[in-house]
Design goal:
With 350 residues, the chain is α+β, with helices and mostly antiparallel strands. It has helices at 3-8, 16-28, 34-39, 44-48, 56-69, 75-82, 101-115, 144-161, 172-175, 224-239, 247-253, 258-267, 272-290, 295-301, 307-318, 322-338, and strands spanning 14-15, 53-54, 119-126, 129-136, 166-171, 187-193, 197-200. A 5-stranded mixed beta sheet has the order 3-4-7-5-6. It starts with a helix and ends in a 12-residue tail after the last helix.
């Protein structure tokens, strides 16, 4: 591992929501992973906090323990399939770039790569299909196959929710470990591929892209250092998204300059205010879903001068008032689960 990556290995940067869902999966199989969390330094305070986070090393260690204790090899695939827009903090994603699905795909995949920074997901068009390439950013060691399964599950869920068919192209190393992939409903699997790739078919069929948009979009090459710097900027914003959250203060904490941070953000087609607003949107939705905190206190915590300003921003993110969102979020979560992909078949596909 290079020095730059090592710098972030123990930084709490991955949302606790992923740990909670892993604990829930373990409980379904009578496997108690809570004691393992405690051994790894993930305490009950972090597990119960909407702002809780774990480090890359903690998550990798927990995945390794889970793989030893969970009975079925497909557990990581099922875990990825269970994660919807709420899990990844992208409830309001469909509101952005509604006339440009390529931009939605790029934004979604970039967000996943930031929240789960083990693999970089790069999309590009090939005729009517959207190809998503997998590039491993982190030494995955013993849990490589399970991490790949998680990402496959995440992407298959997104694709099937859009009513599209999908092909998984699996590299030779993973093909022998991923026979359960052949059992995913509505998914074709091809083994022995040079690299891991997911293909969403008929992406450019007229339902998603304007008729005039037939050319392959320019691909922005994001280095591992770019990705890790964006991850750290986002983490510092997450720790303090209020009024004091400015690019100047974040740059100071990183021992850098606002100009340098802006350059990293521009390389990812982002601005500091866009990233901060995205974090605020996620925090706001979590507070409304998971706490009884008064709306005016949420507004203050997130840096808004009054409740009216916060409500205006929240409507822009979700097309709902904060009060309406709080009242209906449980129904929304149930509905989201009901439109997820079918359960894995009992028989292997021929």
């Amino acid at each position: 591992m290079d020095a730059f990556k090592a710098l972030f290995a123990d930084v709490p940067s991955i949302s606790i929501v992923y740990i909670r869902s892993l604990l829930a999966l373990g409980k379904e199989h009578d496997v108690n992973l809570l004691s393992t969390c405690h051994e790894l330094g993930i305490d009950d305070g972090a597990l119960g906090s909407p702002e809780g986070a774990v480090s890359i090393n903690q998550l990798l260690s927990l995945l390794e323990h889970a793989d030893k204790q969970l009975p079925n090899k497909d557990w990581a695939l099922k875990l990825g399939l269970s994660w919807g827009l709420n899990t990844h903090g992208m409830t309001s994603l469909p509101l952005f770039h509604r006339n440009n699905p390529v931009a939605i795909a790029q934004l979604a995949l970039s967000n996943i790569s930031l929240r789960l920074p083990f693999i970089e997901l790069t999309p590009h068009l090939d005729g009517d299909d959207l190809l998503i390439d997998f590039s491993e950013n982190w030494p995955l060691a013993k849990v490589r196959h399970r991490v790949l399964d998680m990402y496959f599950g995440i992407l298959v869920r997104f694709v099937t929710q859009m009513g599209k068919s999908v092909t998984l192209c699996v590299d030779t190393q993973h093909a022998g470990q991923g026979t359960h992939l052949y059992e995913i409903e509505g998914c074709t699997v091809k083994g022995g591929h040079p690299h891991n790739q997911l293909i969403m078919h008929d992406f450019n069929d007229g339902d998603f892209l304007p008729a005039s948009s037939q050319t392959k979009p320019e691909r922005t090459k994001q280095t591992s250092q770019n990705q890790q710097m964006l991850l750290l900027i986002r983490r510092l914003i997450t720790l303090d998204p209020g009024r004091s959250c400015t690019i100047e203060r974040v740059a100071e904490k990183l021992g850098s300059t606002p100009r340098t941070l802006s350059r990293y953000l521009r390389a990812a087609s982002l601005s500091f205010s866009e990233m901060r607003n995205g974090v605020r949107a996620q925090h706001a939705q979590r507070y409304l879903r998971e706490s009884t905190m008064p709306i005016i206190d949420i507004a203050e915590k997130l840096g808004y001068s009054d409740q009216a300003s916060f409500s205006k921003a929240f409507r822009g993110w979700t097309q709902q008032t904060p009060g309406d969102y709080r009242r209906t979020h449980r129904a929304t979560e149930v509905a989201e689960k009901s439109v997820g992909p079918s359960n894995i078949k009992n028989k292997k596909r021929a």
